[in-house]
Design goal:
globular, disordered C terminus, alpha/beta
């Protein structure tokens, strides 16, 4: 992260003391050289899992950042791909790095995921690594927005990694990060909402059902299984249904 191509400690500190939007504007030129970018292995695994569910005509990358998810969509969608993000800096990088030769048309839109500026125009919505920027109380509105921009039968897909157990160092690292962020937001304005432990799968599945989605969980076999046999990573695939038809299949 602190190599010649990535941000230095001072730049990260300035970002952390900014708003989420301003922080990502500042980080955008170096974002793809940080661990915050979704790894290629995750992107490839999701693309492989979604391919049998297509074909798709029009896709949306929700909170697209520098366009890694939109690039996945260009291989899944036949007509159009749209990336939406509220950081002008991240969108600027995305415009330059995602330029497919042929294939679907690609468009970039500056907007808030909690108030999407679209009608029901998409068959597939994906999102990668963005949900830590939403508080649990915001999920119903967020999922309602996604439901509203999908055509009937359209799908909302995103990967979920199994959280580390308390016996693992990663558990305490994430807990420490979230604790620091809560203290920072209690003492400093504007807030920077980024929490790793607020997006709990059980609660998310319930909120998706209440928003009118029928939900399936697809293991991502490339990441193996934990000691208890459960997948290390899953793809949540939520299909737009009538509000009373939400169900969960594991």
């Amino acid at each position: 992260m602190f190599g010649p191509e990535g941000p230095n400690l001072r730049e990260l500190a300035v970002q952390a003391l900014s708003s989420v939007e301003r922080g990502y504007d500042l980080l955008a030129p170096k974002f793809d050289h940080t661990p915050f970018r979704t790894p290629d292995g995750v992107l490839d695994s999701v693309a492989k899992a979604l391919t049998p569910l297509g074909p798709f005509e029009d896709g949306l990358d929700l909170c697209c950042g520098t366009g890694a998810g939109a690039e996945v969509l260009t291989g899944l969608c036949r007509r159009s791909v749209t990336g939406v993000d509220f950081s002008a800096g991240m969108l600027g990088v995305a415009r330059h790095r995602v330029r497919p030769a042929g294939g679907p048309g690609v468009a970039w839109v500056r907007g808030d995921a909690r108030a999407l500026p679209f009608a029901a125009a998409f068959d597939l919505v994906v999102s990668f690594g963005a949900f830590g920027h939403f508080l649990p109380r915001e999920l119903p509105g967020l999922f309602g927005q996604v439901h509203s921009v999908l055509r009937p039968g359209g799908r909302f897909a995103f990967p979920v990694l199994a959280p580390p157990r308390p016996t693992r160092a990663g558990f305490w690292m994430l807990l420490g990060f979230d604790t620091v962020m809560r203290v920072r937001n209690a003492l400093w304005r504007p807030p920077f909402v980024m929490y790793y432990r607020s997006f709990r799968l059980g609660g998310v599945l319930g909120e998706l059902g209440r928003a009118g989605f029928a939900v399936e969980l697809h293991p991502l076999p490339e990441f193996g299984r934990r000691g208890d046999g459960s997948p290390r990573a899953r793809l949540v695939v939520a299909r737009r249904a009538q509000p009373a038809a939400g169900s969960v299949n594991s």
